[in-house]
Design goal:
Blueprint: H1 31-43, H2 48-55, H3 59-68, H4 70-96, E1 99-105, E2 108-115, H5 118-128, H6 130-133, H7 141-159
Antiparallel strand pairs: 1-2
Length: about 180
């Protein structure tokens, strides 16, 4: 096969003739749609995919515009912070103030009762005061080292081999007040 019949090697990037979105060309993601996207981003708790779907664009378009438009990227970050703030307020409201739930009798609403979310309130307390409400765990590393050293020594004696003292540090039970 001659060189003239071989396909020409293309460089990286888009194929020739394809349309590319330049930073100065907005495409279908106009400033008005960006503003709507940011509003939906806050309403949807910071979920960019859901906000993009509401505006009728793809999440990839949002990511592209965040990459090429630093002002838009900053506004997206601010909108996500606002959404986080809104979620935190709602968590606190449900845990502290509660919400009304209808009470039914024979298919009819006969009243309401206040429902509180103990789980949300506890999670909020863990976030605000981890030293008081987070689950605590403590690991005693020295005990594991001692057991490993003793196990290796016992195995070496059973196999009839010697372990060099320099290879393993001798861990002795020091009086640490725990019996």
């Amino acid at each position: 096969m001659s060189e003239e019949n071989l396909p020409k090697k293309r460089g990286r990037g888009r194929p020739p003739g394809s349309k590319s979105l330049k930073p100065n060309k907005q495409g279908s993601f106009t400033p008005q749609r960006k503003k709507k996207f940011l509003q939906h981003l806050v309403k949807n708790g910071g979920n960019a995919s859901a906000a993009a779907a509401k505006v009728g664009i793809s999440p990839a378009s949002v990511h592209y515009h965040m990459k090429v438009d630093s002002v838009f990227k900053e506004k997206v970050q601010l909108a996500k912070l606002e959404a986080m703030d809104m979620v935190e307020r709602e968590i606190t409201r449900r845990g502290v103030e509660g919400h009304d739930e209808d009470v039914y009798y024979q298919g009819q609403v006969v009243g309401t009762k206040k429902i509180y979310s103990d789980n949300l309130l506890m999670r909020r307390a863990e976030a605000l005061m981890p030293e008081r409400y987070s689950k605590r765990s403590q690991v005693d590393v020295n005990a594991n080292v001692t057991v490993e050293h003793k196990a290796r020594s016992k195995l070496a004696s059973l196999l009839g081999i010697e372990i060099e003292d320099a290879e393993y540090e001798d861990v002795t039970d020091k009086d640490d007040g725990v019996d």
